[in-house]
Specification:
two-stranded antiparallel sheet, elongated, binds calcium ion
Amino acid sequence: MKKTTVTVLAALAALALGGNVLATMELQKELKAKYPTAKVSCATCHVKAMAKKGDAELNPFGKDMEAKGVVDPKAAKKAYDYTKLEALDSDGDGKSNLDELKAGTNPGDKAK
Ligand SMILES: [Ca+2]
């Protein structure tokens, strides 16, 4: 009985982790498709370049993405509305997120 519980919990943890990683990769793919000149990586939305589970703090652009509900998980086919972020200047460097994405700079890091 105990072994079964552990196995089930491990499977659920793997599913949850896989789901998060997959969602992140999908976000990157969709962002790149919408803004072909953008330099998209983990660091586009996270503080660290190699974001990992439990250490994936969002940068200002990632936080805006979350706050503005860019991903609609209730849509029949997952919908991404990045236009909600275009006019914002998430990192406060004076350039809009749209301009930064087009220029290939990081909209979540005013130093890049
Ligand atoms: Ca900016």
